[in-house]
Here is the input.
Amino acid sequence: MADEAAIGPVELTVRGRKRVFDIRDPKLPGWVDDNDLTADDFPYKDKMDDDAFEAEMHRCQLEIVKMLGWMAETGERAVVVFEGRDAAGKGGTIAALRENMNPRQARNVALPKPTDAERKQWYFQRYASHMPTAGELVTFDRSWYNRAGVEPVMGFCTPEQHKRFLADAPEFEELITREGIHLIKLWLNIAQETQLKRFHDRWQDPLKRWKFSPIDVKGMTLWDAYSDARDLMLQKTHSKHAPWTVIRANDKRRLRLAAVRAVLAAVPYAGKDDKAVGTQDKAIAGSPKAILGIQD
Here is the structure.
């Protein structure tokens, strides 16, 4: 958790304007509060209705149980990678996906920073050791893509290591898919104002303040650097065998529903009820090109 004494007002550039943001101030600035949902051309002015969300998610949850049952019977395996900026909603979305999964059949992997021994290993080694066994689904709350985002932006790896990772990742993922593992990669895309509001909510709630780290403090000032790293990552690692699905994350309900639908669509389980799964909202989820305009 970040030390309160180390968190003063920070100067930010938001939409080309200089702003000052003080997370300790209980009052959220209007330029954040008025735009946290609609920023980045988010296609909806209101959050998804709770009753509609619950009804659609319930149908999808029934399909998840069906999918896991099929995986248990057939020995099929799946990996779901959740990536995105801090406060994009990775943890809550993973929880929504796993809500009715058998814990003996579904694992979530959220690795701490590497040990000294792990730093001397092949970079992908500690992630490869968490691949699923027969009938298992594994979610990664952050993954090997740390080397495409936080590590180069924060100076935790060298430019050469970053460059080599972008070349190696598609090959590593081809090994995974050739092994027969279904690999689903989700990028949760959050607007700057939305991130600031969620950071503010965390800091103002003593029960959630532990979620706010020193890296979050520094990261607030590095928005553009993270954007550049994201765009390069999506361009270099979006492939036919392991494509990215980008999901607009300003509205947590739409995000969670889109993520669950992306997983259900990617796994060819028997007895799939397409009507129950529902149609993916193309204004919320799609390829890097469709959502962010990033060329393959």
Q: What stands out?
A: Residues 4-292 form a domain with the Rossmann fold fold (CATH 3.40.50.300). The radius of gyration is 19 Å.
